[in-house]
What we know:
By secondary structure, the protein is mostly helical. 62% of the residues lie in helices and 7% in strands. Helix 3 packs across helix 5 (78-89). The termini are far apart.
Amino acid sequence: xxxxxxxxxxxxxxxxTSCMNESxxxxxxxxxxxxxxxxxxxxKSGVSINVTVAQxxxxxxxxxxxxxxxxxxxxxxxxxxAAHYRFVTHAKQDDNxxxxxxxxxxxxxxxxxxxxxxxxxxxESVNGWIQESIEKGEKCEPxxxxxxxxxxxxxxxxxxxRLNFLKEFEEKVERGEIKILN
Length: 182
């Protein structure tokens, strides 16, 4: 009987540790996987995004210095977009566009608390802008979180198009072809 209890405890312990190992699959700042996966692959894989915003920015600068090219904005980095996707798919939007979320921390969405808190601050700011516009009686057009929006967050080609557009726009401003009014 003692042997049966020991075997049962052993199998229980092995099962527990194997579950822990499966759930601990993650993308860290040192991970090569992080550098090769698309946003869509990260979302579908379910891996945890265990990086801070500062680490994402550092990795982008490092990639640029190694491979040339220009540094991309944070929203163009696949792991950031995957985390953004996870955040907004667990949020609700009211008729005015105000976003609310049920997650309480990064672990709820399989991401670091730093990334989670960055999204909270970002959407609190957007919600504040919407609320202020409503109170002033101004028309405001919030970005609606719908299927099209979510698909656009994940598609790398669309991000590249946006980056090219912004680069061309900046060049036209620099050449004086477009004037920015304050």
